[in-house]
Amino acid sequence: MTQTAPAGGATRSHRPSAARRARRAASPYTYIAPFFTLFAAFGLFPLIYTAYVSLHRVQLQNPGEMEWRALDNYTAIFADEFFWTALRNTFTIGVISTVPQLMMALGLAHLLNYKLRGRTFFRTAMLLPYATSVAAATLVFAQLFGRDYGLVNQALGLVGLGPVDWQTGTVASQIAVSTIVIWRWTGYNALIYLAGMQTIPNDLYEAAEMDGASRWRQFFHVTLPGLRPTILFTVVVSTIGATQLFGEPLLYEGSVSGGISHQYQTLGLYLYEQGWGFFHLGRAAAIAWVMFLLIVVVVGVNALLLRRRARKETGR
User: Three-class SS of residue 68?
Assistant: First the structure.
């Protein structure tokens, strides 16, 4: 005689397994919940609130009083000639600092990738400029680029060149600010490139060497293609950093306006001047969103160009 279990017992035995499956499905989200909670509180909410503030007239003296202005803040900054000056300065300083910086970092990483004596020391020394305070580095370079007693002008005098006004001239001041950026970030990017080079298989170098390729040909035909994702990463990060450049031009002369004629005022300094110099928080929020959209466009264009180039090379 066969006995069957009651339906209620089957239901009771099935419920714990369903609850257990639900806990297992939800457990991964509990691990990542703290990150998304912090991101929503300190990343997403400030971004959305800044967009909301950019549509209002807000003064620093009374931040709680807001007057709806729609897109008037954006119209005001686009009509301001100093905004376009800051945008142009940001672009030129970004190019002057980023291109030599990444090229020097690539060369240093290529040298450190070989077996050298004391390479651990040199790899550690690469991070010393990055670990140095922005204020300390900028103040030292401001003394080096001094017009009357700076070591740079004294070195130029030894080769028969006259002194350069590194704080008043447009091109000279931008080169001086870019030099600080290059000094601080070249070693950091070199270590990133070095880490990328060490992921390239040695079999590719051995095959290229057996085919008679020199080290230069190995660098151009093996190293650079293998570093394409790393180069894209450094270009994107350097572009974001150049767009947000603030500390170096601020401390170079101690002026929010970026010099007498705004010759090296970046978008970061322009934002600070509008918000905390002229007390226009709404206009400063609009500048912040313009910078955010500019970064998105520039990064998107860089990624698109590199993807097209990669498709062309794979199509060959």
Answer: strand
56 within 8 A of 69, measured Cβ to Cβ: yes
Is residue 259 domain-resident? yes
CATH of the domain at 170: 1.10.3720.10
Q: What is the Cα–Cα distance from 86 to 78, expressed in whole angstroms?
A: 11
Is residue 193 in some structural domain?
A: yes
User: What are 316's two structure tokens?
Assistant: 């060959």
In a domain, 39, yes or no: no
Range of the domain at 107: 72-315
Burial 154-184 (b: 16+ CB within 10 A, else e): eeeeeeeeeebebbebeebbbbbbbbbbbbb
Number of separate helices (H) and strands (E) present in the chain: 16, 2
In the three-class reduction of DSSP (H, G, I as helix; E, B as strand; rest coil), residue 281 is classed as helix
According to DSSP, the residues that pair with 280 across neighbouring strands are: 59
pTM of this structure: 0.81
The pLDDT tens digits of the residues spanning 210-261 come to 887 777 888 888 888 888 888 888 988 998 899 989 989 999 888 888 888 8
pLDDT of residue 219: 84
Q: How many CA atoms lie within 13 A of 93 on its CB side?
A: 32
Q: Is residue 10's pLDDT more than 70?
A: no
Average pLDDT over residues 132-156: 88
The answer to whether residue 29 is domain-embedded is: no
Confidence of residue 6 (pLDDT cuts 50, 70, 90): low
Judging by DSSP bridges, how do beta strands 56-57 and 67-68 pair with one another? antiparallel
